[in-house]
């Protein structure tokens, strides 16, 4: 992507593509109002960063765009399910998400729990279409990548550490390890799932993996910064919640300016990983890294 205007145009087009696909694939017809809760959780909100990373990585390796769109939506469904569950009273007990009431506030706790369960199942269904459009071996690879990122070694495990760490003084190594699981794993998987739709070299894959790792950690550092510098209306979620709940963050550990320097350094390293990859079409991945660093919500 040669300029900021070009990236904004690409981003808007891909966000619209993902939104249309999610609208088609997340049916309102699930029984007893479940489909409505699922659609409420997924549609009309969010930056769609994870799907954009899938699509940009597919672009970088010149992979299969149709399969990448399914993978992009699958990743977003996993992300959406995690937010539904994380916001519930037994977890983070949040009432605001993406600028609107959280799913359990709008539909009740039981329906929210079921909506999250159904979104998770639908994510894997999308990766194994019965129309022959995706190679079976590739479907299996994508399912494994997504499951590992979402499970005990990834997002769910990171959330367990997060809940167990309330009121604790984690050192930087422990904090980074937690967020590499809780937040970073799914962002890294987004890059790697997009890469899996093509046939990049082993060296290029290793560079993309490092890019995804650094981007994922930088995203969380920026998130911690925004939690103390931005209001709830801009964030679309409750600002200051981490401090109020006595959760360890990069800002509470390092201070605001060092945390910003840490995010900047991680993003510089992510750019370097792309430059070292040997891939010819990484402009959009570069632009996504810049977007992560500049975001305000």
From TrEMBL:
The reply on keyword Repeat is: no
Q: So which cofactors does this thing need?
A: Mg(2+)
InterPro entries attached here?
A: Isoprenoid_synthase_dom_sf, Polyprenyl_synt, Polyprenyl_synt_CS, Prenyl_diphosphate_synthase
A biological process term (GO) from this entry = terpenoid biosynthetic process
Q: Which domain of life is it from?
A: Bacteria
* PROSITE patterns membership: POLYPRENYL_SYNTHASE_1, POLYPRENYL_SYNTHASE_2
Pfam families annotated for this entry?
polyprenyl_synt
Q: Which keywords annotate this record? A: Isoprene biosynthesis, Magnesium, Metal-binding, Transferase
The Gene Ontology CC terms held by the record are:
cytoplasm
A GO molecular function held by the record: metal ion binding
What CDD domains does this protein map onto? Trans_IPPS_HT
Protein family: Belongs to the FPP/GGPP synthase family.
Q: Show the PANTHER family listed in the entry.
A: FARNESYL DIPHOSPHATE SYNTHASE (PTHR43281:SF1)
Q: Can you say what this protein is called?
A: Polyprenyl synthetase family protein
